[in-house]
Amino acid sequence: MDITTDGPTLALHGDFDVRSTFRVRTALYDHLDAHGQVVVDLTDVDTVDVTALKVLAFATRQASIEGHHLVLRGAGPAVRRLLHLSHLIRVVDLDRVTA
């Protein structure tokens, strides 16, 4: 998992799974502290699992509690399907631009 930043955007590249959740969680919370409104770009994510999506869902809730905002961009069909199957779609905010 590679993580790059461009202003308020945190772009993830590679496999986002249980092995990379600690790195992503740390980068995500640091980025939220610095910017307040963060876009997590999933365009270059090859695979994702439910554990990884739970990190994003929890961060979305925590950001909201702290007055911040987190949105997911570039969620492809597989990611969207897993969000629906896990019911985490109810928690996260998806950018409505087509992936």
UniProtKB/TrEMBL annotation:
| Alphabetical list of Gene3D superfamilies matching this protein | STAS domain (3.30.750.24)
- InterPro entries, per database record: MlaB-like_STAS, MlaB_ABC_Transporter, STAS_dom, STAS_dom_sf
User: What residues does the STAS domain cover?
Assistant: 1-99
Superkingdom, natural source: Bacteria
Q: What is this protein called?
A: STAS domain-containing protein
